[in-house]
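Predict the structure of TRAP transporter large permease protein.
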Amino acid sequence: MSIGLLTLLGVFLGLLLAGLPIAWAMIAGVLSWMAITGNWAFLPIVPERLYQGMDSFVLMAVPLFILAGELVNAGRITDRLIAFANAWFGAMRGGLAQVNIGASILFAGITGVALGDIAALGRVFIPAMVKQGYTSAYAAAVTASSSIIGPMLPPSLTAVIYGSITDISIGALMAATIFPGLLIGLAQMILVAIQARIHNFPSVQADRSPKALAKVSGAALVPLMIPVIILAGILGGIMTPTEAGGIACVYALVVALFFYRSVDARSLAAVFSRSALFSGQLLIIVGCGAAFSWAMGMENVPRLLSGAIEGWDMSPLAIMLVFNAALLVLGMFIDPTAVIILFGPILAHAAQAAGIDPLHFGVVAILNLNIGLLTPPLGVCLFAAERMAGCGLGALLRATAPFLAVNLIALAIVSAVPGLSLWLPRLLGF
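Done. Here is the predicted structure for TRAP transporter large permease protein.
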């Protein structure tokens, strides 16, 4: 490893661990690399690369999906999704925990952001589960663990960013993540069912007559049309992800403003402000990451990694295991968006050189990084749930451990069975 590459990575990781925002740590790493290598002639290229990293029609989908999610939250559409999940999942033992997971699956189809899931559902489910006799740590564990389903199911912001960075069809990637995402939800529901038998968790009492089921299903139909619009538009080739995001925003605005009348014109300023702030935070990371990836390309990191993998003489499955381990470790320390921007193109190129399907690898990478949201020291979903529950990090880690285990089992299945990810994109002609 050259002194330039050591400086680039060392300064970035050092400043990141010191608490500097990740975007500025990346730019500092690039400038330090220029200083140590004497490549100051490349200085004008840095702002150009930063701008080009953000100047993408596909990436316009990111603020649009964020805005759609904010409109859904502000419009209290969540209540209807929870009632729908309660009607269909609540009758099982451990019903409220099952409803929590089921609501996350439904909510994922609207926001595609893990923290959005916790913000919207955690405030409802954590107090409700505690009131019904669950420990606050267990309630927080279910909420945090089910939140990682969101970034797996369309409209996944992680998938949009990964596809734009690695030049993989976002429609194909969204189709490929559907069944692995549902597998995570199913695995967590099975775990809750087992725990419910052991600990005698209660079911949720509610009217589940055909008339009642039809009523809550009808009430949930309007918000559930948001993921239908997005999926049908993108997978059907009718709309690009950016156009689908725009249509979803208009639909969510009309539903919240006129249909349910749960948002007034005065509150929209706060909604747009939060969306703009979150979008800006993501996109500046994307831009700085593009400059950082360019510097790594100047150090021939993709070629070095591909050459190292060729020298391992390992099967694609064994190499996939190595990539899984690397991505899990990276996800423990670095935000998923930053990992994708920094290492996505390099790892995707190396995986393709090793005989791994790029689409399959993309699904595995996204799932790995989502699991990292539950693991310290980063663990943003873990800490967000702990703040809501006030249960203490130690108790939450113990309660989360079984969910982390079933998530890793699901990851192993997705990694070992490429067809689970690839059959739907192939069926749709991607």
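The chain has a mean pLDDT of 84.
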